[in-house]
Design brief:
Blueprint: H1 2-39
Length: 40
């Protein structure tokens, strides 16, 4: 059971990190667009 719980925890952590990575990627793209419009 402990091994199963460990795998589940790792999967949950990876899922969260994917969401965080997606969030930063989206934020970066939005900031780049804004900066691009400001320069032009």
């Amino acid at each position: 059971m402990s091994l199963y719980q460990s795998v589940g925890t790792i999967a949950a952590i990876r899922g969260d990190s994917d969401k965080i990575e997606w969030f930063w990627d989206t934020l970066y793209v939005e900031m780049s667009k804004t900066l691009y419009k400001t320069i032009l």
